[in-house]
Structures are given as C-alpha cells and as structure tokens.
Amino acid sequence: MAELLSKQRIIAPADYNRWRVPLASVAIHLCIGSVYAWSIYNPPLTRAFGVVTSAADDWSLGEVVWVFTVAIVFLGLAAAFAGKWLENVGPRKVGVVSAFCWGGGYLVGAAGIMTHQLWLLYLGYGVIGGCGLGLGYVSPVSTLIRWFPDRRGMAAGMAIMGFGGGAMIGTPMKEYFIRLFYRAPEYLGTTAEVNLVTEAGRRFAEIGGTLQEVVVIGANEVRDMTIPGPEGVYLVNTGAAGVAETFVIIGLIYLVVMLIAAFSYRIPAEGWKPEGWKEPEEKDRGALISGHNVHIDEALKTPQFYQLWIVLCLNVTAGIGVLGVARTMITEIFGTTLPHIVDTAFAATYVVMISAFNMVGRFIWASASDYIGRRNTYWVFFLLGIVLYLSIPFTAAQVNVNPSVVWLVYFYAATMIIFTMYGGGFATIPAYLADMFGTKYVGGIHGRLLTAWSTAGVLGPLAITSLRESSVNSAINELVTLIDPAAFRAAFGTGVDQLDVLVTQNSVTIARLMEIAPSGTIDPTSSIYNSTMILMAVLLGIALVSNALMRPVDPKHHLAETPV
Asked: Could you give the CA distance from residue 63 to residue 486 in angstroms, rounded to a whole number?
C-alpha cells in the first residue's frame, strides 16, 4: 500500500496529456467544497427536538455556525502542515488521507447529532473534517501550477474552482436527503384549541393531565419549516429533522469519490515543460513576477508574505461570515416583505447560485489575472466590493418601505458579484505567490498562507453572529416597547419582565412579536445585518492598502540557482 501511494508511483510519462490532471483536482474540490453549503444544515441542526422550529433545548444558530468556523480553522492549520508534507510525499497520499478525514468526519458528526452531543459534531465535522478540507485543498494547487507554468492563473483557477462549486452539487443533494428523512412532529392543534402553560420561559401543553413541552408555530414562521405544515402547537421530540441520516449518506459518498480521484493524480517529471514553451526572459516579465525561487522558510521572512496574508485574510473574512449564514440571511432580509417569493426553496436555490458564482469567479478572475496582473485583479476586488457591501443596508431599508422585487434582484446580483470576487481571491492567490516567490515551493508557501483562511474563519462568523445577535436583541427590545403588556401576556403566558428568559428559551422571536405588534409597525428583521455589511467594507479598505504597498521580493531571499 505504501508503494501504491508513493510519489514515484505517480510520475507521468513524457507523452502524458496534462489536461487529464484537472479532473481529479476538480472532483476532490467538489467534495470538500460542499463546506460552503453548511448553511443548509443550520435550520435542521437548530431544530433537532422541535423539528418545525427551535425548542428550548435545541442548539442555537450561533452554536452550529461555529462548527463551520472550526472546520475552516483546521482547514488552514492542516494546509499549513500539508504544504511541506505534500512536497515530500506527493498529492496521491495527501488526497487519500483527505478522503478518510472528510468522509470520516461526517460520520463522527452524525454520531454527535444522534446523541445530541455538540462536542462530537465539533470534533467530527469541525476538527477531523477540517483537516480533510486542508489536505484536499492544497494537493491540486502546486500540482497544476507545475503542469501549467505557462498559465499560472488559469492553473490555480482550475485547481480551486471545484471548491467553489461544491455547494452547487452538495446543496440539492443535502436538501433531498434532509427531506427524505424528515418526519413532522405530532400536531396538537391551534393555540385556541390547546391549553398552553409557560414555565421558566418554556411552553407546555396539558395532555392527559400531564404537562408536555411543545413549540408554537405562527403564520409568519410556516415558511421556514422544512416541509410547510399548519400553524399551531407541536409536541417536542416526536419528529425527525433528517440531518443525522443525511450526514451518514453524504459522508460515505464523499469518501468513495475522493478515493477514486486521489488515485487518479499524476505529477510531471523533474524538468518537464509544455511542448514549445520557453520561460520568458527577465526583461519580459512583469514588475511583480520573479524569475527566482524562494524557500518556504525564507518566504516567511519577507514583508510580501504578510501583505498577501492580510489581503487573503480580510477578503475571506468579508465573504465567509455571509457564506455561513447565507440561507438564513436572505430569508430574514426578504422573507417578511416578499414571503411569496423568498421561501425555503428559494433560499436553498440561493445557496446553489452562490456556489455557482463562487466557482465561475475562481476560474474567470484567476484566468483574467494572467492578462491584467495579480495586483490589479485585487484592486478590482476591493474597490468594487466596498461599494457593493455598503449598498446592501440601503437595499434592506428600501425593501421595508417599498417591498418590490427590484430590491431582491439588486441584492441577489450584488451578492453574486461579491461571491465571484471571494472565489476569485482564493484562486488568484496561488498565482500571486508563484509570481512573488517562484514555483518550486509554491505549494508549501500557499499552505502556510492559508492560516489566513483559518483566521478569517473565526473573524467572519464571529463578526456576523455577534452583530446579528446584538441587532436582534435590540430589535426585540424596541418592539416590546410598542406592544400592549396585556397582549404580550396573552401571547406568551407571562409578563414582559420575563422577556430575557423567553428569548433565551426561543419562545419570543421577532416574528412572533410582529404578530401582536400594533398595525403599521415596521418589521426590523431586514436590517439586522446592516452593521455587518459596513464592517466588511471597512475590512476590504484595509486589504486594499496592503495590496497597494506590494513590491518585488528583495533578491537576498532568492535561492542561489539558475532562474526559472
């Protein structure tokens, strides 16, 4: 087995068609790129007991979003380690280990969901699965850049575009299995038909002389159900969200596909070059394209490495937090104002389209960078990104005043452009590194740089969940001041003095308050992401400065060798 996985075993013959190599890379990245469809799991994971809506003992959105964060953190850490390991053992061995980590992580995560042990979900999907992400991510990059030295940007785009497209395939597959295994909880009737009791913020129904915990679905929340049903009262822990079974099936599928792809890897022989291609002379290179190699360890001593680290980190931070809650975000911004358009099916399709534009952006922007230059490409990302992020709060405000589909179309278009640049940033950075530090150690240097992704994986979700929670709590408190205390007591079975407890136990939400708010009250849900969008624009401004200051690497860091 060791020989079968060895680097020497996968050296391609001289007449090998290099265009066969991207297929294995794309296949692996399509599997691991499904991490971008994490938001599909958010609703069922937060409804394991309540199923139709969150019960008191269910995990919160903040808790499950951080599973995605942990996965991204370990992606970066594993990539930093794997970059140098990859240079020694080759992409096949790295790809096989990646398959077992990513597929196995899903299975461990499934055990955590079945037992409702959050730490197992973190360990499986977050830690083990995250390591699989990092190992699978770096294996194609240096391989394809070596196969395509004449088109570095295009090579990086091909290597990484599958990662952006993973959610495009993964989303409908996950949605299908969740619905397949979904089972609605026992329906008890409308709130008028059921005797409800509130104790310590929880809702109970008297059934056969005993109190049993229930959840209450209002008219405004029916659209958020996995499979819409009647509004009213449902018995807790009598249905199935379908997410645990989905984890098992998906994990096994990814394991098999990634193993097949890993065994398809080939690398060029030492000194191989495309037929008819010659390395450009020094005088014909761009200002930021070096003809010399820099060792992995030496690259860490240059300011250029840290400038590129900032560029990647802040560009990813601006996009990754939104990715983690994409489905939830579009539903919250437009679900109340355009409920007949933005339903669960629309939100799922939105996640698919994010994946499609993320994938396309990786190839198009990286290929374009071969012609306009890497630094200029990032100029576009940051300047245009700042404008688009700042426009979203305006859009959210306008849709409340005028619930027109025009604002939904603009939001859709703006976020899709943002995600092309988010994906393009990932795909362009390996070519940027190859320009600055040479191609010999680009895999290892790229792996080290991906610690920026780990950092962004913390900063992005932290920003969006913290700011969202703050905005939600502020909105709830403002709404309560407008509501008649008697109406509040009638709806929730207790007084306003118990508001904090009711919010903690998921009994009070913005949607449920809007049902008893005075006529003409503006629903604040669409504005809860405004502060997040402003912060993201600021981060892109900082990244813009870092990119603007980029200069060639000092020759003292170059290896003493013939230029490449």
From this structure: 34
